[in-house]
Give the backbone structure.
Amino acid sequence: MVRVIRPALLMLMLVAGAAACNSSMTSPSKTGATINGSVSASSSSESLTESQPASGPSDESATADSAPALTLVVTIEGSKLQATVDADGNFTLTGVPAGNVKLRFRGTGVDSIVIVPSVEGGQTITIVVSIKSGSDEGELEADDRSGTAGGLRQLEGRVDAVPPVTAPGTFVVNGKTVVTNASTVFTDHGSSATFSNVAVGVRVHVAGTPSGDTLVASTVMIQNTNAALPVVVNGIVQGFTGTTSSFSFTVDGTLVKGDTTTSFNGNSAFADLANGKRVEVKAVQGNGFVTATSIHVK
C-alpha cells in the first residue's frame, strides 16, 4: 500500500524535524561547561573503590546495566546531573550550568560539598578536590579553566615548584608551568607584589595566555600565604627506586620522596612498595616534590 503524504502534513513534519534538530544543538551538553575532576581523599581511599552502590538521583545519560557500582557519586545540587567516581578517583560532568556550582560527593562514609565558583558556558574546567570521611565540607585544591571569555586561561592552586628547580621567572602550579615577564602584574590581597612573593605552598590565581605547554601570566594574585598545609596523593606508583633510608617514586606526575621517618599504615610496609601498586600518601610540600610522612600501600 502506498502512503500519500499531503503537502500540509509534510510541511509540519519538516518544521518539527527542524525544531528537534535545533533543540539538540542547544541542549546543555552542547552549551554548558565540562568539569573534569580528580578526587583526593584525606582519609583511607577505600571508600572510593568499594562495590556498594551510593544513593543519589539517577544519571539520565547512563543505564543501570552500564553504570559501574562505586561508592562515591558526585551530583550537581539542584539538577539531575551526576557522575560516578572511578577507581582512580576521576570523574567528568558535561552540560554544567553557568554560575556558582555546588558539587555534592556522596558515598560510604562521605557526604561533602565543594563549590566551583563563576562557571561560564563553554568552559572546560579541570579541578582537584579534597574530601574527608565524616566532613560535610570538601576543598577545591586546584582549578584550571580554558574557554574563558577573552581567550584567557585561568589557573588556581598551590605552588609546587619555584627557582632554582624551575627556570628564572617561572613557577609550577598543580603540574602546570607558569611563565612571568616584565608585563606580569603581581598582587597580594590587593597590594602590589613581585615574583619574590611566590613561594612553594602559596595559593595563587593566575590568568594568562597558553603558549605550548606553558601559561604566560598577565596577572598573578596571591590568595593564601599559609604554605604549611598537608598534601594527600592517591594513585599508582611509577619509577620506584631506593631503600628505606632514601626512596622516591611518582604518582600521577607528583614526585614523592621518603626516608626512615616515613611511616607505613593500613597493615602495609616498605617491602610492599612497588611499581603498579596503589598508594595513599600523606605528605608535606617541598620544592618540586612532596616528602611523605605516611604511606598506605593498597
Remarks:
- The first strand starts at residue 33 and ends at 41.
